[in-house]
Structures are given as C-alpha cells and as structure tokens.
Amino acid sequence: MNPRSSRRQHLTAVSITIAAVLALTGCAGPQITSPVGEWVAVNDDDGSLSIRPDGTFTMTDASFNPLQGRDADNDFNATGTWLTARDNAEIALDFEEASQGSRDVEPRIYFVPFRSGTLRFQDAEGLFDIEFRLVDETSE
C-alpha cells in the first residue's frame, strides 16, 4: 500500500468520526440564553407555559401533571416563580400553586434544561412526559 493512499484513508476515517461525534452531541441548532417567552406543548400534548421576565410563570391546560408524573385530562394548571440554575443551563420552576381538575397538587420545585428551546417534563421512569417548545422569545 502506498503512503499517500494510507494517509487518504486515515483522513477519511478521521473526518467520518468527527462528523459522527458532532451529530451525536447535538450540534443541531443555536442555544437560547433565556427561558422568557411563550412555550406551547408539542406532538400529541396540550398546554401552554408562559414564563415572564418578572420571575413568574403560569402553566395552563396541560395534558401532563409534572408534579405527580402522570397524564392529565388537559386540566393541570399551575403558577409560581422561576430562576435560572446550574450555570444558566436549567430553569428552576417553583410551583407555588397547582391543581389537576378540582384537586390541589402538592407544590414543589422542578429543574428542567431549557437552552435547546424545549422544556421536557417526565415521570421518574421516563414513560410519560410533556414537551414544550419556545414559540415567542421575549426580551427581558
């Protein structure tokens, strides 16, 4: 085998490896810097999440109850406060008041990554979830 051919094969292998690593690490799009804005549920989920610059949020008519990790009949509603956490890579949502239908739900804090422009809430086993996408980024 001649050295030029061997070098070309090596460069091709390295290029393929780099492309695979980039694809697997999620270099798919820009990272957002703020969670402020209107988020809507995607796919077969329903609901909206409004994150306001004053540090408050409202979740309305959600088809998933993130505090109890179970499906809801588009009747999970909550209000609370938020702040960024973990080097501004996640948002900490402090659910202060929450209900599913006519029942109150015990409040708690929920941490979720936001920088990709999606917020995913799921149960402990990862079987049930809801995903919100940012549709209107509002400047602070």
What do you see in this structure?
The chain has 140 residues and is of the alpha+beta class. It has two domains: 1-28; 37-137. 16% of the residues lie in helices and 48% in strands. Strands 1, 2, 3, 4, 5, 6, 7, 8 and 9 form a nine-stranded antiparallel sheet that branches. A hairpin with a 2-residue loop joins strand 5 (90-100) and strand 6 (103-104). The chain starts with a helix and ends with a strand. The model is unreliable at 10-15 and 17-27 (pLDDT under 50).
Q: What Rg is obtained from the alpha carbons, in whole angstroms?
A: 20 Å
The chain-level mean pLDDT equals: 84
Helix content: 10-25%
Domain module tally: 2
What does the largest sheet look like?
9 strands, antiparallel
Shape: globular
Low-confidence stretches: 10-15, 17-27
Strand content: over 45%
Order of helices and strands: HEEEEEEEEE
The helix/strand class is alpha+beta
Extended strand count: 9
Number of helical elements: 1
User: Terminal Cα separation, in Å?
Assistant: 62 Å
Short description:
With 140 residues, the protein is α+β, with helices and mostly antiparallel strands. It folds into two domains: 1-28; 37-137.
Topology:
Elements: H1 3-24, E1 37-41, E2 48-51, E3 56-65, E4 70-85, E5 90-100, E6 103-104, E7 109-113, E8 118-122, E9 129-137
Antiparallel strand pairs: 1-2, 1-9, 2-3, 3-4, 4-5, 5-6, 5-7, 8-9
